[in-house]
Prior knowledge:
Chain A has helices at residues 6-15, 23-33, 35-41, 115-123, 295-301, 332-337, 355-371, and strands at 20-22, 44-46, 49-52, 57-61, 73-76, 79-81, 89-93, 128-133, 144-149, 156-164, 171-173, 180-182, 185-187, 194-196, 215-216, 219-222, 225-232, 239-242, 249-252, 256-261, 270-275, 279-287, 289-291, 309-314, 329-331, 339-342, 345-351, 381-382. Chain A is globular and about 70 Å long. In chain A, a hairpin with a 2-residue loop joins strand 5 and strand 6 (79-81). In chain A, 48% of the residues are buried. By secondary structure, chain A is α+β, with helices and mostly antiparallel strands. The longest helix of chain A is centred in the C-terminal third of the chain and has 17 residues, at 355-371. In chain A, the strands form eight sheets. In chain A, strands 3, 4, 7, 10, 16, 17, 20, 21 and 22 form a nine-stranded antiparallel sheet that branches. Chain B is an alpha+beta fold. Chain B folds into two domains: 4-71, ACT domain (Alpha-Beta Plaits), CATH 3.30.70.260; 75-132, Alpha-Beta Plaits (2-Layer Sandwich), CATH 3.30.70.20. A four-stranded antiparallel sheet of chain B has the order 2-3-1-4, with helices on one face. In chain B, a hairpin with a 4-residue loop joins strand 6 and strand 7 (106-109). Chain B is elongated, with a radius of gyration of 16 Å. Classes of the chains: A alpha+beta, B alpha+beta. The complex binds iron/sulfur cluster (2 copies).
Amino acid sequence: MSIKTYAEINARLREGKAVVVTAEEVTTMVQEHGLAETARRVDVVTTGTFAPMCSSGVYLNFGHSAPRIKGHQITLNDVPAYGGLAAVDTYLGATALPANDPLNSNHPGEFRHGGGHVIHDLVAGKPVKLRVTGYGTDCYPRQEVETYITLDDLNEAVLFNPRNCYQNYNVAVNLGERTLYTYMGVLKPRLGNAHYSTSGQLSPLLKDPYFRTIGVGTRIFLGGGIGYVVWNGTQHCPSVREGPTEGSVFAAGGTLTVLGDLKQMSPDWLVGASILGYGATLVVGIGVPIPILDEEILRCAARSDAELYAPIVDYSVAYPQRRPEILGLVSYAELKSGTIKVNGRDVPTAPLSSYSKAREIAHLLKDWLLSGKFTLTEPVQLLPSPDAGLTGKALEIKGPKE
Amino acid sequence: MTPKKVVLRFPADVADKPIIYYLVKDFDLMVNILKANINPHKQGTMIVELSGDKFDAGLAFLQERGVNVQPLSEEIVRNEEQCISCGACTAICPSQALFIDRPSMIVQFDGEKCIVCQLCTRACPVRAMEVKF
Ligand code: SF4
Ligand code: SF4
């Protein structure tokens, strides 16, 4: 039933004849013109998300000093980076913290400066203090280096995020008696608020829940530059279930591993963040183009906030104790209205993921596509879809022979 | 005397008592309420301008009743460059000074409504909310 191919869409993009709309705009188009007509007209739907994504980081090669050093312990602005790669390669993770950070010793800790902040400084072109110590070898005799580097000084700086772009996420509430400081923000006791963190109808993986188009090699908007999907993300276990209202879905569990050259990214779309009582992280902007190859792909890409559901989870007991129970499903339309009902009570909602910035990303990606600067890539391999039946493995605490 | 601005914070068990009435009746103070707010946990915050000869006695009375009294010397401002319009501050702000404009979903800050509770300064992930002295 395919009505378009990647090659045909790319040809139209190059000729400036393609029709590209955002995931918000397509929702209205389908409501007005129907599925079949819109599928014929629209070539690409753009999506966007801008949210804290902890499983993010950069790998760097900072070049060889004279004499040479083999990095064993490495810090960037006092934040430890990985010393287990080749001599002058390292990986800096978004949640890494300086050795002298007070952490949560005075709860809730502030985590003002971590890996995400260093990545933000690097991409902003600011000088970053690099400290390297080595144990000295015949080929790498030097034992200490302290210098300042900027993004331009590095041979390579590549954003490489093992798990980004969560398809859907919990709506976090607190049934307990004390304020909780979580990665879902400050949760007030006795259902004081509900925090969610997905851009709903703009969220990339909610718009292709069967992974029909997003795969290894998909070119994307990443951190303000161009990036690629290189694999499924860690904990990728996508599933799609029917939602409580007709035509609605509760899709969850899909994730992406993404990669791109940090040198062409922007500090507007990669921002260091401090989550009170939790830690440091990086807010990452991602936009994924969805080619409308057929009507079924469009049907999913056009689902509106009212047709997309998320689970409500208690963060006082259920989440930390890894209990499966949820307090119900709620639609993104309800979440975005500002109040939801939980256990019969009105609870004010707030997002942690910026919807207005997600919309900006979808529009930027649309502009890139229309200008011909960005064309689609056909994945060399699709990612596991819900049909693969992947489920997460839990960690059991056991001895070597059990 | 010239009026002084103070921030009064009322615990839940005091918020419904006619405390301001006593300030006027027993201490003869002039009270000008600039902002007032009661949050869902029934805690109250008020920014008032007080003047009168028994100012100190009035403040002592408030503290005795469990009201936290602080001079208003601080103001909260938002660093517009830094704010990423995420929304993480909006449900914890007790006075709706930080709110989401719909349907644009852009987070707005209305300094007029701010009661300087400072909850947002640490809850904002990018530290866009700053205290100005
Ligand atoms: S200090 Fe922040 S949280 Fe408190 S009222 Fe003002 S804006 Fe709201
Ligand atoms: S939490 Fe901070 S960055 Fe987010 S909307 Fe509020 S002020 Fe802006």
